[in-house]
Amino acid sequence: MENYITSSTGAGVKRVKKLASSRAFRMSEGVVIAEGERIIRDLPLEAQIQTLYLLREKKDKYAYLSKRAQEVIYCSENVMRAMSDTSTPCGILALVRRPSNVFSSGNAVIADGISDPGNLGTIVRTAAACGVKNVLAAGCCDAFSPKVVRASMGGVFRTAIVECPREEAVAHARDFKIFALDMRGENVYNIKKSEFSGRYALAVGSEAFGLSEQLKAAAFKCVSLPMAGEMESLNAAVSLAVALYTVEYALK
């Protein structure tokens, strides 16, 4: 029998809304909300979709995704609107098992004090796109909030993300050679690729406060991006993206 819900005040809807709003509840449940066809379609094969909520009218359109879910629940428009974190729900939402936070081999990105979900999501997305599998979120906003998941375009499921207070960041990054993005650092384009040998971590701080003193002190080298005119800084996610692509693909 088809599981179909029409009440936006039911227990299932309340649970999804609580998962969307409460970091502690997401942690205790071990579940992340993923919304949108593209993000859910592109989930890695090892990602476990516990529950898939589908707008009933889009049952056929999303049938290919239903096969991946342990449970499929069809719902009315008012229910989807109540659960969605967007102003115009696309009709598909998934509860996905929270991915592992155990660092793998390879390099890392350190996001230091990033409070904006869009910026943090973009940083995670960039790391995943560059093949960097590890992200240290030190004193950042919740890395698994719906806004971050959406901004990362599912990158949170393709990277191992360790969340910790800023004061613990250096201990978590002890296995990496840290390169800190700082406007007074050495021009990254003048650095030899060989300096990034071994496991390195590229660190970026918030636009408001920059990198913490702990990470600056632990850095192997501070690096910067050249800028024309009187501009002194870029958006944190943009800075990280330019520097990471430079290191991974441009340095000789």
TrEMBL record:
Entry keywords, A to Z: Methyltransferase, Transferase
Pfam family, one: MRM3-like_sub_bind
InterPro entries, per database record: Alpha/beta_knot_MTases (IPR029028), MRM3-like_sub_bind (IPR053888), Ribosomal_eL30-like_sf (IPR029064), rRNA_Methyltransferase (IPR051259), SpoU_MeTrfase (IPR001537), tRNA_m1G_MTases_N (IPR029026)
Biological process annotations from GO: methylation; RNA processing
Domain tRNA/rRNA methyltransferase SpoU type: 108-245
Entry similarity comment: Belongs to the class IV-like SAM-binding methyltransferase superfamily. RNA methyltransferase TrmH family.
The protein's name in its UniProt record: RNA methyltransferase
